[in-house]
Amino acid sequence: MMKLYDYGRAPNPRRVKIFLAEKGVEVELLNCDMAKGEHKTPEFLKKNPSGKIPVLELEDGRCLGESVAICRYIEGMHPEPNLMGRDPFEIGHIEMRNRHIETEFWSQVGVSWVNGPIVGAMGIFKQIPEAKVASDENVAKYCERLDIELAAAPYVAGERFTIADITLLTAIDFATSLVGLTIDESNSNLWRWHAQVSARDSVDVQG
After folding, report:
1. Which of 43, 55, 167, 197 could form a disulfide with 5 if both were Cys (CB 3.0 to 4.6 A apart)?
2. pLDDT, tens digit (0-9, with 9 covering 90-100), for 68-115
3. How much helix, strand and coil, in percent to the nearest 5, is found in the chain?
4. Structural domains of the chain ordered from first start
5. C-alpha gyration radius of the chain
6. Angle at the Cα of 39 (from 63 to 71), degrees rounded to 5?
7. Could you give the CA distance from residue 193 to residue 148 in angstroms, rounded to a whole number?
8. Nearest-CA neighbor of 15 among 93, 70, 73, 94?
């Protein structure tokens, strides 16, 4: 059985776990305690030189890091239900929408996280309060954009659930539960989408 290196409520492993649950693929979950630095040990760095989770370890010992790369492998091995595109245009469109969220939304949530109270209490980074003010504002603006986009389509990449929805869901849940960011109630289309996607069995299983 394949192994997935995981850690509590970490959002990127959660992306993969939801993807796996949608596919009905079972893996062995192995806790990699980031608080103890287990992701930076020489043994772990052999699995992923970047020292990050998640990491998928295949039955033959080969390893893949990076959430989307892992999901792309799983999609190739288990094509249905399709989550990454059925034809060249849809594949490109879903990839585009997923990258929008990663580079324009996740990145800003990350800045707010690094400069926020939880990371601040760890004392491992020199925080920049002004950066957090700017990233908090950018998150709010992007949510307004998402609200407009989701008025025109039920899901992030169009008419069906895809990896882009998983990426956005984990970003929003991380932002609101651990980073202390809020999404204005006026973003009704975004909240409609969030409720709809959160009700999926795959999401419920992963908490």
Report:
1. 55
2. 999 999 999 999 999 999 999 999 999 999 999 999 999 999 999 888
3. 60, 10, 35
4. 3-77 (3.40.30.10), 88-202 (1.20.1050.10)
5. 17
6. 40
7. 12
8. 70
